[in-house]
Write a structure and sequence with these properties.
By secondary structure, the protein is α/β, with parallel strands linked by helices. It is about 40% helix and about 25% strand.
Amino acid sequence: MKTRLLFSSLRWFSSIALLALLARSAPAGAQDWAKAILNKSPRHQEWVKVTHGSRTIDAFVVYPEVSHKAPVVLLIHEIFGLSDWARSMADDIAAMGYIVIAPDLLSGAGPNGGGTSAFPDQQSVTKAVSGLDADIVTADLNATADYALKLPAANGKLFVTGYCWGGGKSFLFATQRHDLSSAFVFYGPPPPTAALSAINAPVYGFYAGNDARITATVPDTKTAMAAAGKKYDPVIYDGAGHGFMRAGEDPTNTNPANTTARTEGLKRLQDLLNGK
């Protein structure tokens, strides 16, 4: 009897250890709660391949349920790659009446030529995103935007939004893409000051109060954008932390300010997209 109990206990502890190991090694895109949101969406979602030169990018597209042609929103993922949450964020914006395209900027960079989902863990995804060539990222974003604008359901209007690492890239993209209607920067750093004069579109910032690493850049950016004669409208959400758009709907979130910031940020994004 004691032997059987000992065996059962060892098997239980082994199972717990295995689950812990799997949790640590799970790919960055494995967010079951975000995947569940996607699975419940009534909107059409599809994967497409975007090519330019020798590059092929996998991109996730979500269509709104509307009877007319819609504007395009280019969504740039976090440093965690094109995760389930990034795709669910694309679905959230599509629900506002927009075609959203989200490229996996790690396409071809993963094991066996895969993208985000091919990496073994979040740490390796983060390292890979951090090491992406800036010129290739810009080319990938331009190719993805061009692809989406040619969709039969698109009306020719283009917006860009990005989160975390993608927030910085969305701000930088505004210096390089001159047919943008607006750029929405979520807790991302600004481009070099010298590049700001090339921006044509208004830039709207969404920042966390408890994120000094990024939010401390806002005053100087505001001054530099004003000096360049460019529109820059930042909002700081008190008490929220970096990544509040994701954390604010994560079931494990323990900071109510993240939830509030996400709710208010979504409302502001929708109002701005709709020209309010």
